Automatic annotation (TrEMBL):
Keywords: Leucine-rich repeat, Repeat. SMART domains: LRR_TYP. The keyword Cytoplasm does not apply. PANTHER family: LEUCINE-RICH REPEAT-CONTAINING PROTEIN, PTHR48051. It comes from Sinocyclocheilus grahami (Dianchi golden-line fish). The keyword Repeat applies. This is Leucine-rich repeat protein SHOC-2. InterPro entries: Leu-rich_rpt (IPR001611), Leu-rich_rpt_typical-subtyp (IPR003591), LRR_dom_sf (IPR032675), LRR_domain-containing (IPR050216). GO terms for cellular component: cytoplasm.
Length: 229
């Protein structure tokens, strides 16, 4: 019903969409639009005239590109486009100016993370699991404002990294050190040699909140691990 702020148009086998029959006042009432499980190969132009749209889910279609007109959606906070055919060249260069807070593009064809995403000042949650990412840019270190979500899971770079870890087991000293630090066991110079105390003082906590593990600088996992588990 157009009087409602949520418009469900999922599983209708749509390959296009026209909202020309809606009056301007009815368009302004639509805040959420669900277009999942259709046959759309492009974002219908009429969607970009829903100026009060805050939530758009167009997952499970066949989109290859996001048009420049999406910039008209200045109130859009959540954009979900899982399981399409999008890649790093699919988004407009100006996309970094969008006020989107949640961006879910899992199950697409990204081989690189678009720089537009890394420059978005309002983005809090990004999910790129199940793509084709082989590398991550150095700018990933600037994502301190992001929620810790598993946005890299299911990508080649993660599979390769985990495989490499399998053949690099921790030493007995590292295992003992983890036990001491994780259990907060007290120790002093009277208990341990100075080299072991120095080793224990180098311990750090894993930045992934779902990990809660301990690692050492000389064995430090790449920063991408906080985005994996």
């Amino acid at each position: 019903k157009t009087k409602c702020s949520v418009l469900y148009l999922s599983r209708l086998h749509l390959d296009d969409l026209s909202l020309d029959h809606l009056t301007d006042s009815k368009r302004q009432q639509i805040q959420q639009l669900h277009l999942t499980y259709n046959r759309l190969s492009f974002l219908p132009p009429s969607v970009c005239f829903l100026f009060n749209l805050e939530y758009l889910d167009i997952s499970n279609n066949a989109l290859t590109v996001i048009p420049d007109d999406i910039m008209r959606l200045t109130n859009l906070k959540t954009f979900v486009a899982k399981n399409n055919l999008l890649d790093e060249s699919s988004f407009p260069k100006e996309f970094e100016r969008m006020q989107v807070e949640t961006l879910n593009l899992s199950g697409n064809r990204f081989e690189d993370i678009p720089m537009q995403f890394l420059k978005m000042t309002t983005l809090q949650s990004l999910s790129l699991g199940g793509n084709r990412l082989k590398n991550i840019p150095a700018e990933i270190e600037n994502l301190t404002r992001y929620e810790f979500v598993p946005f890299l899971r299911g990508n080649p770079l993660v599979v390769r990294f985990i495989k490499d870890m399998t053949y690099d087991p921790p030493s007995l000293m590292e295992l003992a050190g983890r036990t001491i630090k994780s259990q907060n066991l007290p120790f002093s110079s009277c208990d341990l040699p100075s080299n072991l105390i120095h080793y224990l003082n180098l311990a750090s906590e894993c930045p992934n909140p779902k990990c809660a593990g301990i690692f050492w600088v000389q064995y430090q996992l790449p920063q991408l691990m906080r985005f994996v588990v």
